[in-house]
Amino acid sequence: xxxxxxxxxxxxxxxxxxxxxxxxxxxxxxxxIKDAKISxxxxxxxxxxxxxxxxxxxxxxxxxxxxxxxxxxAKTLEAELVIGAExxxxxxxxxxxxxxxxLCLYVIHGLLHLCGYDDVDERDAAExxxxxxxxxxxLGLPDIxxx
Length: 147
Hints:
Number of helices: 5
Strand order of the largest sheet: 1-2-4-3
Low-confidence stretches: none
Distance between the termini: 33 Å
Number of strands: 4
Largest sheet: 4 strands, mixed
């Protein structure tokens, strides 16, 4: 069973809760995950900036930070994704698409990290962008990956 909970201690962006859960389930099921407990936390810039600096030593707000909570090979995949709602709002405005689509991309991206994909080098990043595009298309969303 895939369980996705959503917390939103920010008030800048109204979240499409059902769509975000649907995106999460679609990615996890397609990646072969049958049992998961995932928490999505949508936060403002000061909060994600603080988390990014504290855990990754990057002194700026970011789009998504993934925290795996279960060990490798665990029966149930457990994780928390902290998602920058304010970053999504800014990026969506700059790129000319909806904030909802931007948030869906961040959920896809974070879950792909949990499923073993990475974007550290160019080759891996290209593979990850391809997977993001695959899921955006499957979910009927515009291709905004890699913009």
